[in-house]
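FORM 7B - TANDEM STRUCTURE REPORT

SECTION 1: FIRST PROTEIN
SEQUENCE AND TOKENS:
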Amino acid sequence: MTRLKNRVAVITGGISGIGRATAELFADQGAQVVVADIHADRGIRAAREMSSDARNIEFIQVDVTSQESQGILFDEVITRYGRVDTVVAAAGISSANYVSGEVSTPSEDPEENFLYQRPLEDWHKVLQVNLTGVLLTNQLAVQHMLRLNIPGSIINLASIAGRRPLPGAGDYCVSKAGVIMLTQVMAAEMAAQNIRINAIGPGFIETPMTASIRQSPMWQEVMIGMTPMQRLGQASEIAETALFLASDQSSYFTGETLFPSGGMYVG
């Protein structure tokens, strides 16, 4: 259980869902984990809940849309631990109205959210968090890894929505497609520097982000119907994928997007 022994891992969006499951697994595998999120009170509480004698998990507040805030995050990590080996960019939102920890009632009519009538500010917010935020995380991580001569691993959270269009979630789909291409470009740029950059494109996963959708019998049926394995995934299954990409077992992987999606995407 020491595949990440002596490594320092930063996980944005690490206080719930896939990010939290990944933080717990990485810590169980010997990593010093820093979870970063915009919600300070919840972040401190989550880090305390996840930590134990065998788990080293700390919290640092960050706004992933702010270059200054992300710079402070990485500077603080380097000050505390002297290095950063693995970064998981898991912070994201499903829509402009998404608030982590809150469950809202989804519309039964996806056309209400079709792109032709969506406010431009909604588009900007989703891309700012889901795409620009990931870019900033990657930039800061690479800069520190280069300066410290660390052969690092960066893992970006994309989505099956980056490959399959989901009507009513156009801004989300575009943002995640952007994450996939961002991953490919930066991986190509950094391959010779021994910094590996990969992504994960989950299918429908049981997390707080999908809670509002799952409470609707109609949408629950839609998600199951789109998934050949006929079930939703678990956050722990995505965390295991992240562990593979963070560990030496994936040493020849870069620029890849793995799709743990129950068979939704096999291209």
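SECTION 2: SECOND PROTEIN
SEQUENCE AND TOKENS:
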Amino acid sequence: MISVIVPVLDTMPWLEEQLRALAAQECDEEWEVVLADNGSIDGSAEFCDAWAAAHPGFHFVDASGARGTPGARNAGVLAASGDLLAFCDADDVVQAGWIAGCAAALQDADVIGGGFDLWTLNGTPPAPVTAVSVGQLGFLPAGIGANLAMRRSAFEAVGGFSEDVQPGEDIDLCWRLQLEGFRFAIATDAVVSRRSRSGLGNIYRQAVSYGRCGPALYRRYRVHGARPDVRGALKSWAWLVCSLPWLFQRTRRIEWARAVGTRLGRISGSLSERTFFP
């Protein structure tokens, strides 16, 4: 069986679209969906509970006591029955064949990262599916939790998601798995339509959060070969300065907010981790 774990936290009004997409999945292997609510106050928990009661194969878990998204995912796994685990987010939309694509890819790998459609939910021109594999810190490839799957045996062998690293817990898990000898692969047939944040403030805050996790990951994995990209950081700062005259363009403002948030997050994370990671 393959168990799909969906952490939920205040994801109305997008939640129903994702649940309908999951309910429409077709897969030769038996599958289930575990909805792990992390303490929603917008009605998401009640909606998930009612949905699970009305749809066989869907289960609701109260994960309000868990530590953030990684804790909710771990709570979902504890309630799951599958020997294969797949993870997606409640505000995105899995494409047709996503569960089957995850299951097929795990026949030859222990952990896989899927691909992302970054345009359908965001009103941007179509583009090729983006491989989820990311090369952080010049180190090992990794997937992200919005489209990630693995064997349960591998997940349990390394203790699941670290709840003291977030965001970045997904990269951390993929790295720990590979350092223990588990096989990582990219699954181009497992595609998720990704929903981007809207509003400059939300985009900036998310980028700051993502930026802060870089120094934490670097501090943990520098002994294994992780390295800071100083040249890339300098190029990013140069781009931020050179782009100032063009901020009247909406697309440039969005790119600028994301880039400056990441860089300031790196500075904040470096200070809190007491390590230099630009």
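SECTION 3: OBSERVATIONS ON SECOND PROTEIN
The chain has a mean pLDDT of 92.
The chain is about 40% helix and 20% strand.

SECTION 4: SIGNATURE
Preparer initials: ____
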